[in-house]
Amino acid sequence: MLEMNRRTFLKVTGTTAAAVAVAPKLVGAMETELGGKDIDPVGAGERVGIPVTCHVCNIQDGAIAYVQDGRIVKLEGNPEHVSTRGRLCAKGNSGMWYTYDPDRITYPLKRVGARGEGKWKRITWDEALKEVAGKLDEAIKEDPNSVFLKYGRNRTGGAIDRFMHTLGSDSILNHTSVCESSKKVGLEPTWGPDIETPDFAHAKYILNFGSNILEAAYFHNPLSQRVMEGTVENKAKLVTFDVRLSNTAGRSDEWIPVFPATDGAIALAMGNVILSNDLQDSDFINTWTNVTVDELKAHYKQYTPEWASKLSGVPVETIERIAREFATTKPATLFTYRGPAKHLYGSYNEKACMMLPIMTGNIEKRGGYCMPRGMGWPQPEPQPPKPAKHAFMNAHHHPDYPLASHGTSHMLPYHIANGDVKVKVYFTYQDNPVYTNPGAQATWGKMFRDEKLIPYYVSMSPFMGEETALADLILPDCPYLERWEPESMPNSLHPWLGIRQPVIKPLGESRENRIILRDIIHTLDPDGSRGMKKYWEFADGEDYMRHHFDNVPKLKEDGGLDFLKKHGVWPIYGKLDGTGKIVDKTGREIEAEYGLHMKELSADEMLGAIVDPTAGTITKNGEAIGVQRNGKNYVGFSTPDRRLNVRVDGWAKYGFNPMPTFKQIPWHKDMQDDEMILTTYKINVHKQSRTAAVKWLAEIMHSNPAWMNSETGKKIGVKTGDLVRVESKVGYVVTKAYVFEGIHPKVIAIPTGFGHWEYGRLANLKHKEKAGGEYGAADDADLNNVWWDDRGVHANAMIPNVVDPIGGSQGWYDTVVKVTKAGPEDKYGDVKGDWDKHMEAYKESLRYAYTGDLHRTMHPEMAAWGGPDSVNQEAAHQAAPAPEKAPEAEAAPAEGAEAAAKEAAH
Ligand SMILES: Nc1nc2c(c(=O)[nH]1)N[C@H]1C(S)=C(S)[C@@H](COP(=O)(O)OP(=O)(O)OC[C@H]3O[C@@H](n4cnc5c(=O)[nH]c(N)nc54)[C@H](O)[C@@H]3O)O[C@H]1N2
Ligand SMILES: Nc1nc2c(c(=O)[nH]1)N[C@H]1C(S)=C(S)[C@@H](COP(=O)(O)OP(=O)(O)OC[C@H]3O[C@@H](n4cnc5c(=O)[nH]c(N)nc54)[C@H](O)[C@@H]3O)O[C@H]1N2
Ligand SMILES: [Mo]
């Protein structure tokens, strides 16, 4: 720290002659400019600002990192960024503490004790690479698919897939099934892309089903700005359905508490009210969807408000009133996130919700429900071919879940334990399933400890997360401020491309991921004779980025990568004004383009095209390029027939209802009086498992009492601060209660992100211990200032595996628990999960798959369908994993929804 002595003080205040020259600059930067500059408050010199894309969480905000004397001293929003518009959240402001985490791993480490014992030996990169290459060599000779890589966040722009494909392995898994997959799978077949971009800023009515937009949610920084604009400046009404009074619900005009997993029923009943009162947009439905208004009316008759009210607990009057308000206030938009989706029938819920903007014609309108806008980039050539053999399961495919196009990766430990798949080498990249998946230490932890199941495990991480602590070898990757990555996210209505670039040199011997992967391949194939090296011929991260960005049309003319290095984002749409808007040269706010589906195809594009006489779909060279409507040739939506597919025939093929529908969670039907449902949610200043060691954020929030309703508290004799035991069929935790009115009486809510047992000293309050032997990078004087002694409790060990048979999602918010006052044996922080019981839960979830016996019981309306035996099983197993939405854009540069869809997946 610089000390503020009299001399430096005088210098800053500009009262000495020497300081006169710097004073105006200081004043200018701080008072008359909006940002993008930073001045050292002591020396008064201007700090170097380097634009990056934030990656403390996964929203991808445009940021600027300020560097002084080689150290990152401050972060702020990039004022040139069209989505972020100069603002960053608390997490974004704290990102340098990833880099300067005193327990960061900066050298390759080899395990020397038993797995998880915490004994490590520092080795050289040469030794580490030789060891990994040796193991890979053995594995790929036997079966390339025995090399597994599971990632959480993967913003490498294609490098991970390139690596695995170079090895010939298809065993690439991701975390999307614990994240939001059922939302994506609910949307995609109807809509095309796997996300929507609501135009909150211009809406007059906003319906929010289960998203905590203002503090978490996908895109919470860009979207919360627009929600505030909509509600404050445009006087939009915001209505939130949530099981608890989230910060978003609390700032809504109305919070409507719902019984868990019943959003779909409410949305269907609202549709019933709209259709039976003729409040729908018939013209839109008849023109742009694959059903008619009459068909829709007939179908929705069954979903009465009385029926939905019984299921959800929401009064009939409320359902009717909100439905009328939504349908008659234009423009209106809707947003959902994980609240409706993370259930056994999450995809049905999502589908039911999205029907509301569709039937009211609020699609692709200013203030409405819009398609995502994004951009793609080309891949370096040559590219490795796709693996010859399909893996049993991967990020897009599982034999029992053919519709789950974003995978069901959370089932992996059971398949490994059952011998369905065989692992020789296992990599993790930004993935901490031992903490973030159902069962956590009781399932994934048990699996990683078993050398028979996982013979060799490599973690590519800079942090000693719960997963990394169980590795055989740690390859120290770089946190986001030290690496190159391409970016694009459809988080505003203006598409953009961005980059991450190293703002300082990697600390210690850390290497950024694409370099680690390259070095492994070069060690495996030093002279290129195995045909692998040719896919990895690049000098460094920057060189790789040139392959992505130097040939994107239009960007190329603006300077390609050099433009992005300077600005962090492209294009620059305008200038940030004092009200927080991006304005053009005349001072007017830049307008988004709407009605993307109504762009007309040119005569050139129509040349040689064929028009389907019934659906109107226009195809050219076997590919659908548009749809003919009222004699005009439009590009339409990016579904196979270019219309919105309200009826999803692909679902019927596997015995699911192709029309909007609802299924109640069977185990929620006959709950006992003393049973409740557990919800685990996110809070504003933390990000999953990864921010507990970020000191500024840990100081703001470090513990997570369980919310419960006053009525419930009274019933079980518990008040705020008392210990409670929360027990499910697979385990239990003992935690503190927080008793108040802001939660449904049948729900108990415990936020995630707390109760670590690894992740360095601060996260698990072992900060009094000395820096950790071989890997501990440094001491941090602030660790002496930690004043709290509560690290919270993590609930995942008692959450069983549940799989949405359509969307593949983990049913996080379905767990039935008994909550009792803690007994004399119970201690705060007790956590228990039982592997055998988790295995039972996994078997139970398979019974709901289309191949399982409970499937038919659950779908009597699909009786006409003959059951799993009637579909060609072989074909189902081989089925190309539905529309492959890779986490990174592989497409050639393209604007619009299709490219955006690829970006959004993660
Ligand atoms: N600050 C912060 N922001 C984040 C993240 C983070 O960790 N921290 N993570 C990012 C990621 S990875 C994701 S996927 C998104 C998630 O973004 P969101 O989905 O918006 O957030 P969640 O907390 O997962 O869940 C949303 C809400 O669902 C509610 N809920 C539970 N069950 C039901 C139900 O049956 N019906 C309804 N209507 N509501 C229900 C919960 O109470 C919670 O408030 O956030 C992203 N943004
Ligand atoms: N109970 C419950 N659990 C949940 C949820 C819930 O609602 N309820 N939500 C889920 C959701 S939405 C999601 S998205 C998942 C997230 O699940 P994960 O993707 O597993 O979670 P993260 O905490 O983001 O991953 C952190 C791991 O990445 C590594 N890491 C961190 N930073 C870096 C880096 O810069 N480079 C590299 N190479 N590695 C790094 C660390 O080793 C760390 O252990 O969690 C889910 N878990
Ligand atoms: Mo997520």
Low-confidence runs: 1-24, 871-906
Molecules bound to protein: ligand MGD, molybdenum atom
Helix content: 25-40%
How is the largest sheet built, in terms of strand order?
5-4-17-16-15-6-7
The CATH topology label of the domain at 109-179 and 387-483 and 510-528 is Rossmann fold
The outline comes out as globular
* Gyration radius, rounded: 27 Å
Tell me the β content.
Answer: 15-25%
The CATH class of the domain at 109-179 and 387-483 and 510-528 is Alpha Beta
Name the CATH architecture of the domain at 109-179 and 387-483 and 510-528. Answer: 3-Layer(aba) Sandwich
Distance between the termini: 39 Å
Structural class label: alpha/beta
Mean pLDDT: 91
Number of separate helices: 33
Number of strands: 34
Largest sheet: 7 strands, mixed
Domain 4Fe-4S Mo/W bis-MGD-type: 46-103
Pfam families: Molybdop_Fe4S4 (PF04879), Molybdopterin (PF00384), Molydop_binding (PF01568)
Biased composition (Low complexity): 873-899
Protein name: Molybdopterin-dependent oxidoreductase
Describe the structure.
Belongs to the prokaryotic molybdopterin-containing oxidoreductase family. Residues 46-103 form the 4Fe-4S Mo/W bis-MGD-type domain. Its cofactor is Mo-bis(molybdopterin guanine dinucleotide). This protein has 906 residues and is an alpha/beta fold. Among the domains are: 109-179 and 387-483 and 510-528, Rossmann fold, CATH 3.40.50; 181-359, 3-Layer(aba) Sandwich (Dimethylsulfoxide Reductase, domain 2); 597-652, no CATH class; 666-767 and 791-834, Barwin-like endoglucanases, CATH 2.40.40.20; 855-898, no CATH class. It is 29% helix and 15% strand. The protein is built from 33 helices and 34 strands. The strands form nine sheets. Strands 5-4-17-16-15-6-7 form a seven-stranded mixed sheet. Strands 27, 28, 29, 30, 31, 32 and 33 form a seven-stranded mixed sheet that branches. The chain has a four-stranded parallel sheet with strand order 11-10-9-12. Helix 10 (263-276) crosses helix 12 (293-300) and helix 10 (263-276) packs across helix 14. The chain starts with 5 loop residues before the first helix and ends with a helix. The protein binds ligand MGD (2 copies) and molybdenum atom (MO). One ligand MGD is lined by residues 57-58, 179-180, 209-212, 215-218, 220, 241-244, 246, 258, 260-261, 263, 337-340, 679, 681-682, 684, 686-688, 813.
